[in-house]
Amino acid sequence: MSQYATPSAELRARVALEKHRFHNTHSLGQNFLLSEGLIGHLLDEAALSPDDCVLEIGPGAGLMTALLARRCRRVLAVELDRGLEPVLGEVLSDCDNVMVHYGDILKTDVVTLAQREFGGGDYRVVANLPYYITADILLKLTALPQPPTDICIMVQREAAERIMSAPDGKQWCALAAELQYYGQPRVLAEVPAEAFDPPPHVTSRFIRIDRHETPVVTPRDEQLFRRLIRAAFAMRRKTLANNLKAAFGLDQQQAKAVLATAGVEERVRGEALDLGELCRVADAICDIAS
Ligand code: SAM
Asked: 9-211 has which fold?
């Protein structure tokens, strides 16, 4: 046994940040997790297995990445900030099952990258997300032709509440509807602001969304269904009929006909509808269009 213990991944990450004089950029949501104990707990909650292929968004200093690498078969990490390259190079130097791709996750061709790294098989998402684009990232991932089997992510508590909201509740929104069409969300852990470096001004929740094995609804045209969801919540004070007219160029008669075919009230507001009703409205629009 060597005289000196190998430095912990946490120490390596902290030293690398210091050595390369890395300064966090607030606008990129760079609130890092630098506690091996806390990340270990989160990864326990995510129940990773040695066969898992994981897509991580925003590896930051790479501590979560290094700990994921120990537990999984392969990790693909997408990081926007090239300034982290020397830090990640050092922290991940002995992780031969990690690939870091530098680019904006919202502009990255995730399908091609995942295909290349994971050989077209199933993959999971685990990440401490940059909060300023949480919704955009989730909407992108869940609408992919081959979406992940589940998504374990850190989000702001308010975002978690919205994602978990139920139809007709105050928080029910397009994001919740689209994500619950993809899967079933639940909270894995509550994480206080002090756990991050630097601490954000919000409390966070680590949540998991499991992709439905059997779809809860099966719209005839998935793209149109997603458009419908966004239109239904677009102007909350307006009736669904008015939102439909604006989004799909329907006249009053057509909007009425759509709602009648879907079996929903004429003066209903979009936010009162559950996924089944939204799906029926989308299918009724398909009928008019065909
Ligand atoms: N995973 C690290 C951790 O837990 O310490 C860092 C998490 S930090 C909240 C978010 C990370 O996402 C940062 O490293 C940031 O540079 C990166 N990021 C921000 N915008 C991004 C984007 N559009 N695409 C990819 N990564 C992004």
From this structure: Rossmann fold (3.40.50)
